[in-house]
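Dear support,

I submitted the protein below through the web form. The confirmation email said the job was done, but the results page showed an empty box. After a refresh the structure appeared. I'm attaching both so you can tell me whether what I see now is the final result or a partial one.
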Amino acid sequence: MRFLTQQKIVLASGNRGKVAEFQALLRDCNIVPQSELGVVECEETGASFVENAILKARNAALQSGLPALADDSGLVVDVLDGAPGVISARYAGVGATDQDNINKLLRALGGVKDNQRTARFVCVLVYMRHADDPCPIIAQASWEGCIVDTALGENGFGYDSVFWVAEQQCTAAQLSPEIKNTLSHRRQALTMLITLLKNNRI
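What the results page shows now:
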């Protein structure tokens, strides 16, 4: 399939953690982060993960002239009505660090019982052949878990250190990158996207 072996594809992300994960997940592909091509990030004005992923893919394809793969992902906490959601990366404000966002999340969950802390990581992937592609390929997946009070683990990024993975009995940040990449929302969405690309003969 050309998507996997021949095309150069711009990855519409400047997040170093995401770039590292995609390069590990797509090690046989010619994936180039948009930062290496001088692509200026677009403003994420969408109200949903899907809208933001489309905005980012179109922006990267337009500026690079290449097919683009965009990810929009975040943490959805049920008791907080889906927050942090699409503003997960800037939950505590523009320029917030991962720790700032975690601190705000834990404050918001203060007093909430363990069995009410259900959450999931959501990932939407969008592949656009070019900036004017009328039929982008879209895949969406989620990774179920819950939020713990104490950050554990040194791996991962974002909210990984407070996201409890029940089947592994640890947080996402305590998983090795290899194990995380078999379980994560990003892996699930990517597997789905590749199937869709094959079906569309990309």
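Response: this is the final, complete result; the empty box was a page-load delay. Helices lie at 2-5, 16-25, 49-64, 98-108, 177-183, 185-199.
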